Amino acid sequence: MSYTYKYPMPAVTADAVVFNLKDDENLRILLIQRKNDPFKGQWALPGGFLDMNETLEDCVARELEEETGLKGIKLYQLEAFSQPDRDPRHRTVTVAFWGFCKKNPKLIAQSDAQNVGWFDLNQLPSLAFDHEMIIKKALKRALEIMAE
After folding, report:
1. Domain range spanning residue 94?
2. Dist CA 135 CA 50 (whole Å)
3. Which of 6, 34, 104, 131 is the most exposed place for a label (fewest CB within 10 A)?
4. Buried b (16+ CB within 10 A) or exposed e, 72-86
5. pTM score
6. How many domains does the chain have?
């Protein structure tokens, strides 16, 4: 029996904030250049929509691999971001995850990413959605944990 809910349903996404150390000094972040609208051509965190048959953890790992080629990165749930206007297409709530990539693996832009790369945190390009705010919160969390 199918059930139809009478209230609007938001979309759910998962985004990955992946840090990397350049020359054991400068912290970098992994970004993809979007292949599709909205924000086509702009840089963003790897991520995407949750499938009906997967957990958020599976979603973020799948999207990270699909868009960058990276897999096996230990990711920690950061926070949900739910500003009503964060996605111009429709109501979207994202759950952000963060982690570190200790190696310097080969990156492969795939799926809906036209490019992928590491960026110094003090030289970030203009970012899509609310990804600048997500990165700032993830960096704060990472630095707090590293200080413990």
Report:
1. 11-143
2. 20
3. 6
4. ebebeebeebeeeeb
5. 0.93
6. 1
